[in-house]
Amino acid sequence: MKRARLIWLIGMSGLLLISQHAQNSALAGQPTLTLRIAENRTRFQMGEIVPIVLKFASDDPGRYSIDLANYDRSGRMDIDKFHLTPKPGWSDPLAFYYESGLFAFMGGGIRAVPPLGPAGQEIDLNLNEWVRFDRPGHYSLSVSSDRVIMDKKEKSFGRKVELTSNVVELEIVPADEKWASEQVAIAATELRSTNREVAMRGARTMRFLGTKNAAALMVEQYNRVDDGRDGEFEFGLLGSAHREFIAGEMRNELERADHPIDSSFVHLLAALAFELDHPDPLPELPQRTDVIDDAALKQIRSQMKERKNAFNPYLTETLSKLASTIPQRKGRALAQAYTTILKEGSEAGTFETPAFAGFREEVRNELPTVFSTLPKGDQDSLLAFWWSDIRSDAMLPVLMAKYKAAPRDFIRGELIQLIADLNPQQARDLLLDDLEGGEPSLLYDQGDVFGKAPLPDLEDTLLRNMRKAEESQPSGMRAYAILIERHATARISPQVEAIYGRIGNSEGDGAGAFLLAYLLRTDFDYARRAIEEQDGLCRQTDTLCSGLAPNVLAMAMAHGESDRIEDLAIARMQSEDDPIVARDGAEALKEHGTTKAEAVLWKRLELWHERWSGEEELLGREENRVEANLGRALIEAIAKGNGWLADASKLRRLESLCISTEQREEVKQMEAAWKDGPKLEIIVFSHNDFWPHLAQYEYQTLESIWPKLAQFPSATVLRFSTSSDVNERKQAVAIGARVEQFAKEHQLLLEVETEE
């Protein structure tokens, strides 16, 4: 006891001395990092949560900022590094999760980055996230961190400043059995609470306790409640030293017909079984893949692929055991089993085995009856990414029920798309009912349920609702104006002109812009005069025009009737009196300009460059912001125009016409996209919602990339990257097949880069 007291006194006196040293350093202008144990404790039982506090400070608040992130989508932060001695006696509880190559995750998240001043910023953490104590003993702890960054007004803006804390002492003692049992009992009570914060506290206690009783409780509670606790359970079971015991408990729970089993449960069980048979981890991956050569990177990817191939039989075996319990399952337990086997089985190639013949058809027939019992996250995932697997007429009543219960926002628009896939007429009727009600919703901005053809039978309804909204709900006019722009014929031009004459281009939440785009197609002379009158009014009041946003010219040109409209866009782009008018034209030409527009854009950019050459500082002033924006619009129009291809040589020419450092850096980034051959990456949002990135070009529909790909010369080497996410992989593979076919037809050379 005296020895423990002496250690505590030494630790506290050392902390006070180092804290004083940190304060002196702060006074010298350098940021500091101070570590302390919450409540000034130094003695903890094994499995007890060890709360620590990191305090960052600087006496120069204008020089540094501090990243206050306290979570990461991968599961834990890696911005702080924990240094604990001696090494024997502790381990990283999540090493297998991050290093085995069997778990897919991504990092990042929302974070605040405020200035760092003398008062400092404190960040509360639990040491247990990074350290599991495997034996009692005396340990010394310090932390290094690169949370502090140079502030934006510094020349080294964004540069990280690595700091190292003082050292604190910890005494870890064996856990008292009575205390550990009490912790399990308390946590079990908290897990039954309807208060999410209380329940999550119980889950975190179980995660770190490390006893077999705690592990058994986590296994029993896994998937029972959809409140976020399963993430704690997953890491708690992965971080426990009792892997073999846990695997046995999970196998038993898997066979209980009333226990919902989701994908994470199955994947975790299969991973534990795999680890017990393959205890040797993969070679540690480098922190930065850009510091190793391609051959080494390919070898690492090959190793990880071999590891996944070896893992798949374990996953298939676990899914087979789950499938054997389906006849006894009901309600959510049945729905969850179907969902889990569908997702994990697609990833592991399970459905290629004879045991699962006919499973997909069974899912289509049976899942609709229990679909509503699934947690919202699983419902959304199935509808977004797995629609082709669950699509059946039996899903129509399910979708209708969700549509009626959904709030009047974008969710209804997504459901309308699925309803239209099963019954286009019913989806159309739903939209018509909504229109007739006179209360527009966001679904008009989404999708293409009405198609792109003219709809004269809707015109009178749209006009009537426009007039009502004009009188009582100006913000609702936008929805009807969108549909008029998309679908109305020239028949109602006089009525639309009357409405536009009253509201102009400033009221109705941008409704006037959509009406003007419609009129450019149906009464070009009227619309052109309206645009010129708006320009004239701006000049009379000695103000710059605000531009036509949304871009009227681009919307009108999208319909394909673009000869006169393109000429108008070119004329506006050449304006030297109003840079916003010129920018408006450039942006329209970027979207829908033909090859004749490219040469004119180059000439206009050269004229702009001649005006501002050598005047970067002047161009950066607030009074010249619109001129800077014009230059950027011209550069982007040339670099990313849909009607022509801006290859590496054009981008180099473009870089020579930049004025500001920021402009040059943006063009250099575009040039980098061509270094090893243009790369095609496709972000998957759902089964039919994709955002392709091709070299420097960015699109929001898959169909947009085919015209651009057709502009590439034959024999161009195109790198195609597919997704590694289980939800996205199926769509990525299907897209990859289409890309391969297109490349073959257009003599492009395709290199597929699969992320493992």
Q: What percentage of the residues does DSSP assign to strands (E)?
A: 5-15%
Largest sheet: 6 strands, mixed
Distance between the termini: 53 Å
Show unreliable segments. Answer: 1-28
- Count, helices: 31
Features:
756 residues; alpha+beta; Immunoglobulin-like; 31 helices; 5-stranded mixed beta sheet; disordered N terminus; globular
Structural overview:
Strands 2, 4, 5, 9, 10 and 11 form a six-stranded mixed β-sheet that branches. The protein has a five-stranded mixed β-sheet with strand order 14-13-12-15-16. It has a three-stranded antiparallel β-sheet with strand order 1-3-7. Helix 14 (395-405) packs antiparallel against helix 15. It folds into four domains: 2-173, Immunoglobulins (Immunoglobulin-like, Sandwich); 177-390; 544-671; 679-754, Barnase, Chain D (2-Layer Sandwich), CATH 3.30.370. The chain starts with a helix and ends with a strand. The protein has 31 helices and 16 strands. The radius of gyration is 31 Å and the shape is globular. It is of the alpha+beta class and 756 residues long. Mean pLDDT is 85; it is low at 1-28.
Topology (SSEs and partners):
Layout: H1 2-27, E1 32-37, E2 43-45, E3 51-57, E4 64-66, E5 80-85, E6 90-91, H2 95-99, E7 121-126, E8 132-133, E9 137-150, E10 160-164, E11 168-173, H3 177-191, H4 196-209, H5 212-221, H6 229-238, H7 243-254, H8 263-277, H9 294-324, H10 331-348, H11 359-370, H12 376-385, H13 387-390, H14 395-405, H15 410-422, H16 424-436, H17 459-472, H18 477-487, H19 493-503, H20 511-522, H21 524-540, H22 552-557, H23 563-573, H24 579-592, H25 595-612, H26 616-619, H27 625-640, H28 648-656, H29 661-672, E12 679-686, E13 689-694, E14 697-698, H30 705-710, E15 717-722, H31 726-745, E16 749-754
Parallel strand pairs: 2-11, 12-15, 15-16
Antiparallel strand pairs: 1-3, 3-7, 4-9, 5-9, 6-8, 9-10, 9-11, 12-13, 13-14
